[in-house]
Amino acid sequence: MTQRGVLRVGAILLLLAFAGLAQRGRFSGSAEEEDAPPHFDKDAEFHFIRTEYNDLPGFRSFGFRSVSRNGRASGWWAQDWPDADNHFTTGIQRLTRINIGEPRHVGLTDPELFEYPWIYVTQAANWDLSDAEVKQLREYLQRGGFLVTDDFWGPAEWDYFQETMQRVLPGHPISDIEEKDSVMHVLYDIQEKDRTFIPGSRHLYRGAGGASVVRQPPGELPAWRAMYDDKNRVVVAVNFNTDVGDAWEFADVPWYPAEMTILAYRYGINYIIYSLTH
Predict the structure, then answer these.
(1) What is the C-alpha separation between 118 and 148, in angstroms, rounded?
(2) How do residues 189-216 score in pLDDT, each as one tens digit?
(3) CA 206 from centroid of its chain's CA atoms
(4) Contacts (Cβ under 8 Å, ≥6 apart) of 143
(5) What pTM did the predictor assign?
(6) Backbone CA torsion sign across 41, 10, 12, 46
(7) Per-domain residue ranges for the chain?
(8) What is the C-alpha separation between 127 and 15, in angstroms, rounded?
(9) Cα–Cα distance between 264 and 259 in angstroms, integer?
(10) What is the side-by-side order of every strand in the sheet holding 104-107?
């Protein structure tokens, strides 16, 4: 896979200003502004790519479980779509000089997969990958692609995820990302204290004075892990027991904690820049 264009990272906006952007409230503008879709370049060099997959048979009965505020799609692959994709893409536009275009979604056997250096999978323990999907995902990663997996929880889901990834990259373990690893510092300096629980909307409750209170599920400690290729480069970033996608999806609502959206954007942008430079 070729990398198209040279990445140029520009000046970063002040976090205080970004926090204000994230918490502006989605009904703050005119009716035309609220209803208008985001304007993204269709011919840009980089796109947020959401990966389509078939659900495990036991989960298919949920039907349109992946309904979001602004979209409807069948399957767990579309959880948080399209809000998370649009909001995060807007953040990348504002925080970097990456030539980023409209978000897209692509199946694992689509030949166009190799045109994109970075792909995202949500609900990564609900996928049911065919042998053909496993083969092409393996080739994608071996040719320099980068996969981010997100929003899966607990020992049972972890075991199934590990089993699936051993089909994709046999003999490559999943290990905790060390704090010194360059993926944690390629743009934003993410430290040990930042490996905190990023809540989904289901983990937020109204507290005293209307403030949001985070309730972390008992026993589900967040983990930031990775799979490495034979040259010790991260090719799979694993967000476990945490929900980066919800932090992107709800970046525009006042009740979602601004600091969690900021952290989720830092992780996502670091992953993207790492994928383009390593």
Answers:
(1) 8
(2) 999 999 999 999 989 988 777 778 888 8
(3) 26
(4) 1, 114
(5) 0.83
(6) positive
(7) 15-26+44-277
(8) 35
(9) 9
(10) 104-107, 49-52, 118-122, 146-150, 234-240, 223-228, 175-176
